Amino acid sequence: MNIVCLDMEGVLVPEIWIAFAEASGIPELRRTTRDEPDYDKLMTWRLGILKEHGLGLKEIQATIARIDPLPGAKAFLDELRSVTQVIILSDTFEEFAKPLMEKLGWPTIFCNSLEVAENGEITGYKMRCEKSKLTTVKALQSIGYDTIASGDSFNDLGMIQASKAGFLFKSTEQIKRDYPQIPAYEEFDDLLAAIKAAL
């Protein structure tokens, strides 16, 4: 029994925070899990910048509404889902992911949730569990699944390394250099072929 676990941002859709950095004109918000391995530190820093600029959930959701999946992502996902089970494991938030899941044909996603005040200010966030991607992969393995995982960032390395097969996709040159043992791909067709070969 196989199940494929995919990261979302940078793999299937553009990075939400980078898109919002461009839309809001705040270049500091371009920082992502590709740059900062400590997710708690990254999110605390982001929320501080949002507060400083008086920006909240509504403004971010307006940017997300204009984001489309990466070219070829939906066809890749449709093909993959026709041959095996797929779960998207993301450190994003339900409040961000929903419009993107609609554009991808409603795949299953496990992610986190935001704490939002009545005025729309994002006051905090609730992680589904610690090390959510690795924890989820191990939980799936404990109920009889062999996992195959792919992602692009530091926070994907745990699930990739713990799976029977794992791949970097559209990752950074630094991560590819640091982890030369993990096969790395740039095109959906190549990733699809690698996953199918591992099934």
- Unreliable segments of 5+ consecutive residues: none
| CATH homology group of the domain at 2-13 and 69-112 and 128-198 | HAD superfamily/HAD-like
How many E strands?
7
Spatial order of the strands forming the largest sheet: 4-3-2-1-5-6-7
Number of helices: 9
Ends distance: 9 Å
Average of the residue pLDDT scores: 96
What structural category characterises the helix and strand content?
A: alpha/beta
Q: Give the CATH topology of the domain at 2-13 and 69-112 and 128-198.
A: Rossmann fold
Structure description:
With 199 residues, this protein is an alpha/beta fold. It has a domain at 2-13 and 69-112 and 128-198: 3-Layer(aba) Sandwich (Rossmann fold). 44% of the residues lie in helices and 21% in strands. It has helices at residues 16-24, 39-53, 57-64, 73-83, 94-103, 132-142, 157-162, 173-178, 188-198, and strands at residues 2-6, 85-93, 108-116, 122-126, 146-151, 165-169, 184-185. It has a 7-stranded mixed sheet with strand order 4-3-2-1-5-6-7, sandwiched between helices. Strand 5 (146-151), helix 7 and strand 6 (165-169) form a beta-alpha-beta unit. The radius of gyration is 16 Å and the shape is globular.
